[in-house]
Amino acid sequence: MAVKQPMNDQERVAFIDQVCRRYQFDRSRLMDILLDIQAELNGIEAPLMEAVAQRLSITRVEVEGMVSFYAFFSAHRQGEIVIRVSNDIVDRHAGAEEVARIFSEELQTPIGGDSEDGRFSLEFIPFLGMSDQAPAAMIGATILTRLTPEKVRTICARLKSGVAPSDLIEHYGDGNNAHPLVCAEVENGIRQRGDVLLCEGIVDGAALDSALRRTPDDLLAELSESGLTGRGGAGFPTARKWRVAADTAAERRYVVCNADEGEPGTFKDRVLLTERADLMVEGMTIAAYVIGAEAGIIYLRGEYAYLRAYLEDVLRQRRERGLLGETIAGREGFDFDIRIQLGAGAYICGEESALLSSCEGLRGEPKNRPPFPVESGYLGYPTVVDNVETFCCAARIMELGGAWFGGFGTGRTTGTKLFSVSGDCARPGVYELPFGITVQDLLDLVEAPDAAAVQVGGPSGQMINSGQFERRLCLEDLPTGGSVMVFSLHRNILEIVDHFLEFFVEESCGYCTPCRVGNVFLKKRIEKVRKGLCGAEDLGYLQELGKTISMTSRCGLGLTSPNPVISTIRNFPLVYAALLKSNGDGLEPSFDIQHALEESRRLAKRRSMIYDPTYDDA
Fold first, then answer.
1. DSSP tally for the chain: helices H, then strands E
2. For 84, 164, 426, 447, which has the most beta carbons within 10 A of its beta carbon?
3. Cα maximum dimension of the chain
């Protein structure tokens, strides 16, 4: 692949004009404008920011704020090929740091920097959405999975010889991963197909056809009977959300699909986007019919950019078939169309108001609530925001009925759930199961006999110990947006907690002090605990600080970021006890966990990795 020659100043000015004109000089499309500039020029330097600001009649500070906020933008010219190695905890345990080191050595590119010849940039990315096939990396927009040292060296040799990132793929994954517009080596990893979303025989168009035979009020009643709640983890009743949006007086309304699957350990929406895109769009279209919306947006995370062309084609085909656009299914007055908004690497944009800010061409900062998006959302209009799985479920409910859907689950938490399972298990992947399954039953399915800890709901959820494996995965017990990470006895619990806190510190939008500063303090104190420099009083400090952050933060990130600390203090007290110093009054603690375990270590001829502070899992 030939190195792209840089544009001269005149060509750059002409290019900026072209891009801004492409989006009608619309300030709300700033995200798209910057994405196009970054893709073509490999960076958005100060003169380019100024040029964009002038053409959109905004300040340079607004443009610079966007560039500095999103991880995929750079204020300096990056290499022609940007390599991003996934660095979530599961990828780290699978060897991500070694993978990054080899990329760095082979391409002579420092981690977090650029090569001297300007060809490559190398950096870690918090989460790529490929935990079931870790370690993984994103090279340009191409995803490469199950990386080994040998595979990485081969990739580097091919890159240095001029091979384009898209040509590095040697085999295609299953299902639509082999579609000509996808061509990815990503595997779906569907381990168990359920009865709602991943079953065979779903008929495209059946849900919309059934919905259009009834009134919006009838559909809301059906949705209410189903008991469907949002599949992102919060569990808000979907029918109530759609009803408020429909009843709020406004000139226009919007439907937005949250496909910004950024919670580490979650990848089930990736599978739905690949295999059930039509069903998702059908659910969005039904929502538009119910609330009276004419426009919708799919907010697709930047890490899933490899799916964009395929999704655009799905939308195009539905327009040609009369299932999207004007006069849908021949129904006069029912006009609804969808555009795709690509993200640029910001976990906080998974929060619905931050996502809407991003769609409006702003930094992805959460908005004050109330008003809620269903009352004042995108551009100030009532907006329904649901995730991919929720819209797919809504479509199936309209086809087969609320009573049918309510027959799955616990009664209070209805339907099935797609679980993304990764970590120390033999069968990682996606499982569609009825709500209410126990953690132990899920561990049996994924073949994880050595599980010592399970993180339910990603870093923002909670970690449970083996004595809690009979708990149920449902809203009334252990809620989750889908992520289930399994850790064996060989993992260091506090290393995992430390990593989760690092993630939250990095991903905080920085708007409010409790989240921006408090998470840093949590991480620093956990680092001291790991070094054996803390006493029992420090646990109280961690708990109180965590409670303060949770109660005073502006959005869900701060509300849940202390969970790794709070849940492990509660569920793994011996992990902390093993590392606490004497209490400072000259008296030693009455119980020495290390001494107590020494005899068992000698007899078993191995160490207890969870309770051994000297164990280094790197």
1. 24, 15
2. 84
3. 84
Q: Which CATH class is domain 84-170?
A: alpha beta
| Residues in a beta bridge with 580 | none
84: left (phi over 0), alpha (psi -120 to 50) or beta: beta
Long-range contacts of 349-353 (CB under 8 A, 24+ apart): 349/260, 349/262, 349/299, 349/301, 350/232, 350/258, 350/260, 350/261, 350/262, 350/263, 351/555, 351/556, 351/557, 352/256, 352/258, 352/377, 352/385, 353/377, 353/555
112: which residues sit within 8 A by CB, 6+ positions away? Answer: 122, 123, 124
CATH 1.10.287.130 is the classification of domain 191-406: no
Nearest-angstrom CA–CA distance, 49 and 43: 10
DSSP H or E run through 552: helix 536-552
Contact 515, 545 (CB under 8 A): no
Q: Tell me what pLDDT residue 3 has.
A: 54
Inter-residue contact 400 to 228 (CB < 8 Å): no
What gap in Å lies between CA 245 and CA 590, rounded to an integer? 60
**Which CATH code for domain 497-618?**
1.20.1440.230
Fold of 418-488: Ubiquitin-like (UB roll) (3.10.20)
pLDDT tens per residue, range 47-57: 999 999 999 99
Residue 234 is predicted with a pLDDT of 79
Residue closest to 34 by CA, chosen among 73, 75, 83: 73
Distance of CA 530 to the CA centre of its chain: 28
The rounded distance, in Å, linking the Cα atoms of 78 and 226 is 50
pLDDT per residue as tens digits for the range 420-444 = 999 999 999 999 999 999 999 999 9
Name the band, by pLDDT with cuts 50, 70 and 90, for residue 4.
low
Distance of alpha carbon 48 from alpha carbon 12, whole angstroms: 8
Q: Fill in the amino acid letter for 470.
A: E
CA distance 167 to 209: 41
From residue 134, alpha-carbon distances to 155, 420, 597 in Å are 16, 13, 33
First to last CA, the chain: 36
